[in-house]
Design a protein that fits this description.
With about 425 residues, this protein is α+β, with helices and mostly antiparallel strands. Helix 2 runs antiparallel to helix 5. It is built from 12 helices and 16 strands.
Length: about 425
């Protein structure tokens, strides 16, 4: 900036460079006469709301106005209403040329937006799955005239995903809806502050992802697979716009919370910030957080024992005799009930190879998990490695273990479970020479 105008009167707040677009769409861009003073701008635009800053762009050398100005309002609805009322108007008896008023955008976000811009009139909302389009219209009509409503539905079942769009006739109406509706329903485009405290927001393993730029399923996966524990992702298509929308689900709530914190507001592609929010799946948030905490503690204790076997005695004293209690298993996986192990002398029909991340599970926990599929002969760990094996007397039991446990997280440890090579094949493998 070459030269900034004065602050709002009364010693008001002056935004810094990083907060010029906070909240989004709260700054207007004006094309005016080179002879229009700042005082006239303040007089004509202050009726629309609190002005935080006025900047008249001037030539670096002559300091003369270039006929371009910016006005920063405290709220998006104020800026939008100023654009609606003042675009095409004349500022005074000496300024007979109509002025141009647009919603200002940062350089990375593209062109300034006018009254007809769909992104200013259309909002993305989170709603109960029981809502119909009529319910959605009834809920949001208090903020202004609605052009249309749309509910995003599952392509296969036709059921609502609890997400929808509302398009208003005016940008100021959409902005008021964002500013005044329930925080659980607010569009994620309205705030990208990672420190935003949303104590009432539902917490779940499922996340909603929205973007002004469309994305593919591969792009969505590549972004969210950065956080371990990604289960699946799905891109939704909306016939009314080119917005990108997707649903992401993790195996555990801890990964979802971390992804929400790290990726909400992430720029992809550069200049386009994505919005990430939880999808309320009906689960009790307190129970999910308790389970997450238990998994983290269990994983920490298991890591401590694995890295220092001398701590096993302390762990037994802390939790009681391991021989008198069944090991505790914390997981979202539905496991069968415990079954008896097969006799040690039983012939092996199938052998499974197990990979642990970030560390192996305790042997008693591992045995308790894999014996639930029946016909388990033995499970053991490879010393100094994050791998182990399970021997079964029945192939069906082994396959059930693979289908249930592969890729799942138990006690904070992610498992990869697959068929192991036969001992003969392993012995024939070429030995490493380095």
């Amino acid at each position: 900036m070459d030269e900034a105008g004065s602050c709002a009167s009364g010693g008001g707040f002056r935004p810094g460079v990083d907060s010029l677009d906070e909240p989004p769409n709260s700054r207007i861009f004006l094309v005016i006469s080179k002879y229009t003073p700042e005082s006239v701008l303040r007089e004509r635009f202050s009726p629309f709301g609190e002005i935080q800053d006025i900047w008249v762009v001037r030539d670096k050398h002559t300091k003369e106005s270039k006929g371009i100005a910016f006005i920063k309002f405290a709220r998006s609805s104020q800026a939008c209403r100023a654009m609606e009322e003042m675009h095409g108007r004349c500022l005074g008896p000496y300024d007979t040329k109509p002025i141009k008023v647009l919603i200002a955008q940062s350089r990375s976000s593209g062109n300034h937006r006018d009254v007809e811009d769909e992104e200013l009139t259309r909002i993305f909302v989170m709603i109960p799955k029981s809502y119909t389009e009529e319910d959605l219209r009834e809920k949001f009509k208090v903020y202004g005239d609605i052009e249309y409503c749309s509910i995003i539905k599952n392509k296969m079942t036709g059921e609502s995903k609890g997400l929808g769009y509302v398009r208003y006739l005016k940008p100021s109406q959409a902005a008021q809806a964002i500013e005044n509706c329930d925080r659980k329903q607010q569009p994620e485009f309205s705030n990208f502050d990672k420190n935003d405290n949303r104590g009432q927001e539902a917490i779940s393993k499922r996340l909603s992802v929205v973007s002004r730029v469309p994305f593919t399923e591969e792009q969505l996966f590549s972004i969210f697979d950065i956080v371990p524990g990604l289960e699946y992702c799905e891109v939704q298509r909306d016939p009314y716009s080119n917005y990108g929308h997707g649903v992401v689900q993790y195996f555990n709530v801890a990964s979802a919370i971390y992804a929400k914190y790290k990726l909400h507001g992430f720029q992809y592609p550069p200049g386009n910030r994505i919005g990430v929010s939880f999808i309320d799946d009906g689960n009790n948030a307190t129970d999910l957080l308790r389970k997450m905490a238990t998994q983290m503690v269990a994983a920490q204790l298991a890591s401590m024992v694995w890295n220092n076997p001398s701590q096993q005695q302390f762990l037994q004293q802390f939790g009681g005799s391991s021989g008198s209690q069944l090991p505790q298993i914390q997981t979202d996986v539905v496991l069968p009930s415990c079954k008896k192990k097969a006799p040690p002398e039983t012939s092996v029909k199938e052998r499974l190879f197990i990979v642990f991340n970030p560390h192996p599970l305790p042997l008693d926990v591992l045995e308790d998990i894999f014996c639930r599929f029946g016909n388990l002969i033995e499970v053991y760990l490879v010393s100094g490695k994050n791998v182990g094996y399970a021997k079964y007397a029945d192939r069906i039991s082994a396959n059930d273990a693979i289908s249930t446990l592969h890729g799942k997280i138990l006690n904070g440890v992610r498992l990869k479970v697959m068929l192991a090579d036969s001992p003969r094949e392993e012995s024939n493998k070429r030995q490493r020479t380095y």
